[in-house]
Design brief:
Order of helices and strands: HHEEEHEHEHHHEEHEE
Radius of gyration: 20 Å
Helix content: 25-40%
Strand order of the largest sheet: 7-1-8-9
Number of strands: 9
Shape: globular
Length: 232
């Protein structure tokens, strides 16, 4: 086992073993225990009482974080010429169609989100082998397949993210940066958790939100009391 650095030891001592924190406390503490030289991401892990193997218990959705993610998201808009001006005005980093489809076929994936139109999905289907494993395939459920290209690009740039429960029943995502004020971290976390609660499958039995942990890149997890979410 590797030896803890001085900063890691200090951070570890700030988290009480076995203690569950309020969302407000956890949002403040995650900033205190982060000593990275870069602006680390703040991550949230929510363990759900669902069985993801059952289609009727799959939890998937989108959420617009009130304070954004703090990340510069690179967006590619694959659209028809009549939509290009709207996509560019909304802030898309790359706009076009056939030339970018060819680039992707050649292995280019230097993007975070692809937004496209229903009429174009036939062309994009052939890119599944490249985009699928990287989580870049556009999907109507996540709002990345739409005829309102400009609106979709703007939402993603402002902090809209999509999420899906994994095979272990955990939803994991980044909800900001440690440079954010603690209140903004808490607000983003609250919005994310409330969105998950609204998506509770009718077939899910027992406790739905089993645990919530807040952490930053390379930090320990801080256990959050779900009952404190509405205090924010």
């Amino acid at each position: 086992m590797s030896k803890l650095t001085k900063n890691q030891k200090i951070a570890s001592e700030k988290i009480e073993a076995g203690k569950t924190y309020s969302l407000k406390e956890a949002s403040e503490l995650v900033k205190e225990i982060t000593y990275t030289k870069f602006d680390a991401s703040v991550d949230i892990d929510v363990r759900l009482g669902v069985d993801p193997r059952k289609a009727n218990q799959m939890v998937r959705g989108v959420v617009s974080l009130p304070n954004g993610t703090g990340k510069q998201v690179k967006v590619l808009a694959l659209c028809t010429p009549d939509q290009e001006a709207d996509a560019k005005a909304a802030g898309a980093d790359y706009v076009g169609l056939d030339e970018y489809i060819e680039k992707i076929k050649g292995g280019w994936t230097d993007i975070d989100v692809i937004i496209t139109m229903p009429a174009i999905m036939g062309k994009i289907g052939a890119l599944g082998r490249v985009l699928g494993p990287r989580g870049l395939m556009p999907n109507p459920k996540s709002g990345t397949v739409t005829n309102e290209i400009g609106k979709a690009v703007k939402e993603v740039k402002q902090g809209k993210i999509d999420f899906k429960v994994d095979k272990n029943g955990i939803v994991h995502t980044s909800i900001g940066k440690v440079s954010f004020d603690a209140s903004k971290i808490a607000e983003n976390a609250k919005e994310f958790i409330q969105t998950i609660i609204k998506l509770k499958p009718a077939t899910a039995k027992g406790t739905y939100i089993k645990s919530i942990y807040l952490s930053s890149t390379m930090s320990k997890g801080i256990k959050v009391d779900p009952k404190t979410i509405d205090e924010i």
